[in-house]
Amino acid sequence: MASVSIGAFFLFMSAQDLFKGQPDNKDKSNKYGDLIWASSLGIVVVVSTATGIFAGLWLDKVLGTKPYLTMVFFVLGVIAGFIQIVRAIKRKSEKTGI
Predict the structure, then answer these.
(1) Which of 81, 61, 83 lies closest to 70 in space, CA to CA?
(2) 77-94, pLDDT tens digit by residue?
(3) According to a count of CB atoms within 10 Å of the terminal CB, is the N or C end of the chain lower?
(4) Which of 19-33, 38-52, 82-96 has the lowest mean pLDDT?
């Protein structure tokens, strides 16, 4: 297992060396960075929604209020996810000056 990760590290480092002298390297890395940033926004919504659902299910099980708290925490999880998206977009726009 360690040899695979060491091999992957050296492969990654040699791939970086290949792109060092090219003028398009900054544009490509910026596009990939934006792609990673955008995909992380979707992950934030999924994780916050799932956290709300599991918290609601657990509280429903403990308190015996079968569907109600799950629905409430589902909605709260979705709202929390969208709040995080808005915050991330604001930070990104302030950073890039858009």
Answers:
(1) 61
(2) 999 999 999 999 999 888
(3) N
(4) 19-33
Helix ranges (H only) for the chain are: 2-19, 25-63, 68-96
Instruction: Tell which residue, 72, 78, 42, has the closest CA to residue 58.
Output: 72
Read off the pTM: 0.66
Give CA separation, 49 vs 43, 54, 60, 71, 94, in Å.
Answer: 10, 9, 16, 11, 27
First to last CA, the chain: 44
Instruction: For residue 56, give every residue at least 6 positions away whose Cβ sits within 8 Å of its Cβ, in sequence order, or none.
Output: 69, 70, 71, 72, 73, 74
For 53, residues 6+ apart whose C-beta sits below 8 A from its C-beta are: 70, 73, 74, 77
Count of beta carbons in the 10 Å neighbourhood of residue 78: 15
